[in-house]
Specification:
By secondary structure, the protein is an alpha/beta fold. The chain is built from 15 helices and 32 strands. Strands 13, 14, 15, 16, 17, 23, 24, 25 and 28 form a 9-stranded mixed β-sheet that branches. An 8-stranded mixed β-sheet has the order 1-6-7-8-12-11-4-5, with helices on both faces. A 5-stranded mixed β-sheet has the order 2-3-19-22-18, with helices on both faces. Strand 2 and strand 3 form a beta hairpin. Helix 1 runs parallel beside helix 3, helix 2 runs antiparallel to helix 4 and helix 9 packs antiparallel against helix 10. The relative contact order is 0.12.
Length: about 550
């Protein structure tokens, strides 16, 4: 009864807000660009893209301020053992909603955008986005999809989601003392909150101006909702070959997911989040959100062109977030003084080779991407079904500087399903669903190390992107299916003896080290980290023994 009363109160407040004359409902894209410039939220770069900078606390996600309302009716569907599922009580969430409505009612401009998450109309999630900022509304216009004409077909047609965003407002620390965390940066109660109420389908972004906060909140919502409808959500990019074969690339920020999926030989469905249903693969979003640090026009021409092409500002609308810009309006993408996590947001249509529908058949190949700073994993290896299930559960990589605030050097991390912060449900749900998909469709799975070879970070070089592309192409074209493999007994993967376009000495990581004994020490240490994390994260989660047996060192 209380939830019903609170929902009625929310609906009433929302209706009254949307009746105000300050509301700009579903503005044209040109209006958002014009308002962002005129209101000094952004400036126009030399090519016509918009550039903006966020406060230091908003140059990346803030995981400790990303919260989920804990309710008795849904508590057992969420893995509260995961460090990224941080609960917030209903009362505190409703206090923030109250503050958000009070603030929005005082704004001179409030934008309302109706969009959806999901290219497959049978499960597209209607989203009502409301914010006082034109710039973040333009970001939503880039990233979320237009409402399809057949939205009534969606299983969520009568269950929309509402997201309120106040990126530059701050919560009153005195009001939330004892309710929100202590933020050491300000030596007091946090003034930021990114939170979702999955039962009432309401989200709030308060005090975070990072575009990724809005994007990732909504994808976390989808990753929670879809399994209940029999659909597997995946933090991945997807593209399609000339014969209609679909490839999925899973990996955390900085592993090359966006770069490798933008392949001129393959049509892109999307670069970050997809659903795998009985219909096949479908992209969640309308655009791309690419890391820009050290972006090279020769090695990553598709992404570079999408952001840096010249057009009239009102027609351009690509967003450059936190990159160094000079007085003449040109960017220096090698300069990381603001943050190494500079970002570019642009519509998929800005790429030269996309599949406009953003939907395709079932996946033929899956690539798990990892940036191994230890330099001990092979640059490419083949996985069996059980091995694939294990690596999916572990989601190993080395977290790179800038993706989250406070990360300076690469750090070994395990992120289940290559997207732990965005996968709220219990892990057996996602793992079981992937296993079912692999069995049903005979999908090939490879592990690709886009990190270091010949030694660890600081002593060796990162794998050249052109060599990684050659390995990816060999996997997707089927050229790696029939070559000979050697089993790596420590990490339980199979290493190809040959790969077209790749020096043979690069393929076996131990052979690429000048000191094989040093390799053994480093590899054994990493294997022990795998075993320790697996026991801690999954020891009581009912993981199948044949999957657990794939843990390195076993």
């Amino acid at each position: 009864m209380r939830n019903r009363e609170m929902m009625m109160d929310f609906d009433g407040r929302l209706a009254r807000l949307l009746e105000r004359p300050s509301i700009v409902k579903n503005p044209e894209r040109e209006r958002l660009i014009q308002d962002a410039v005129e209101r000094r939220e952004a400036i126009v770069s030399a090519g016509g893209a918009l550039a903006a900078w966020t406060p230091p606390e908003s140059t990346g996600r803030s995981p400790q301020d990303t919260l989920t309302v804990q309710r008795p009716e849904s508590a057992d569907t969420i893995d509260w053992d995961s460090p990224n599922n941080i609960p917030i009580d209903e009362e505190t969430f409703d206090m923030v909603l109250e503050d958000a409505f009070s603030s929005l009612n005082e704004k001179s401009h409030v934008y309302e955008l109706d969009r959806v998450i999901g290219a497959d109309a049978t499960y597209a999630l209607p989203v009502r986005f409301i914010s006082d900022r034109a710039f973040i509304s333009l970001f939503v216009d880039n990233m979320f999809r237009p409402v399809p004409s057949d939205i009534e077909k969606s299983v969520f047609s009568d269950r929309p989601f509402t997201l309120l965003a106040l990126p530059y407002d701050k919560l009153d620390p005195a009001r939330y003392e004892g309710r929100l965390r202590i933020d050491p940066r300000i030596e007091g109660t946090s003034t930021m909150m990114i939170a979702m109420d999955l039962d009432r389908r309401i989200g709030v972004v308060y005090g975070s101006a990072y575009g990724g906060s809005v994007k990732k909140l909504m994808f976390s919502v989808m990753n929670y909702l879809l399994p209940a409808e029999g659909i597997l959500p995946l933090h991945c990019s997807a593209n399609e070959g000339p014969n209609g074969d679909i490839a999925l690339l899973l990996g955390l920020s900085g592993t090359g997911k966006t770069t490798l999926s933008a392949d001129p030989r393959r049509a892109l469905l999307g670069d970050d989040e997809h659903g795998w249903s009985d219909n096949g693969i479908a992209n969640f979003e309308n655009g791309c959100y690419a890391k820009l640090i050290d972006l090279d026009a020769d090695k990553e021409p598709e992404i570079f062109r999408a952001i840096m092409h010249e057009d009239a500002p009102e027609q351009h609308g690509a967003i450059v977030e936190n990159a160094m810009i000079y007085p003449n309006g040109t960017f220096d993408l090698t300069d990381d003084r603001l943050t190494p996590n500079s970002r570019g947001s642009y519509p998929l249509s800005y790429l030269s080779n996309i599949k406009p529908s953003s939907v395709g058949e079932h996946a033929s190949t899956i690539l798990f991407l990892t940036a191994d700073a230890n330099g001990v994993l092979p640059p490419i290896s083949r996985l069996t079904r059980d091995q694939a299930m294990f690596w999916f559960l572990m989601g190993y990589t080395s977290k790179l500087a800038g993706t989250e605030t406070g990360i300076v050097e690469p750090k070994t991390t395990f992120s289940r399903f290559f997207g732990e912060p965005f996968m709220p449900r219990n892990p057996d749900v996602y793992a079981r669903m992937l296993g079912e998909k692999l069995d049903a469709h005979g999908t090939d799975v490879y592990l690709v190390n886009t990190g270091w070879v010949g030694g660890p970070y600081g002593e060796a070089d990162r794998v050249d992107i052109d060599l990684t592309r050659a390995m990816v192409h060999a996997a997707l074209s089927g050229e790696l299916r029939d070559v000979e493999y050697d089993a790596n007994e420590l990490f339980h993967v199979s290493i190809p003896r040959t790969c077209p376009g790749v020096p043979t000495e690069l393929l076996d990581p131990r052979e690429s080290w000048s000191d094989p004994a040093a390799y053994d020490v480093r590899a054994t240490k990493l294997a022990a980290e795998f075993a320790s994390h697996f026991d801690k994260a999954y020891g009581n989660k009912g993981i199948a023994p044949e999957v657990a047996a794939q843990c390195p060192g076993n």
